[in-house]
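haha ok so turns out i had the wrong file open the whole time. this is the CORRECT one, sorry everyone. sequence first:
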Amino acid sequence: VQLQASGGGLVQAGGSLRLSCGFSGNFFSSRTMAWYRQAPGKQRELVGVITPRSSTNYADSVKGRFTISRDNARNMVYLQMNSLKPEDTAVYYCNMAEYWGQGTLVTVSS
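then structure:
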């Protein structure tokens, strides 16, 4: 299994970014996928999850601003981030069980 995240970058506060994560392996459509993030000097934290049936759950800090979606035909999971805040600055990782992508850096300037 390999996970490849992309889409990070520098954005101003209030802006939007969309992260993508490609999944290489079997049975993507039956897997719960997650996004995590790790800010400088802080522990990695869960951003949200999406189940095989596309039910989602989010951390309180991003609820109403972030949306996770998936495309089972393309083995892709996405994180749409709106109304970004400087405190959203972190390396974002996609995750499936014990497997992690390499992370993509999101920097939000004030």
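The mean pLDDT is 96.
again sry for the mixup
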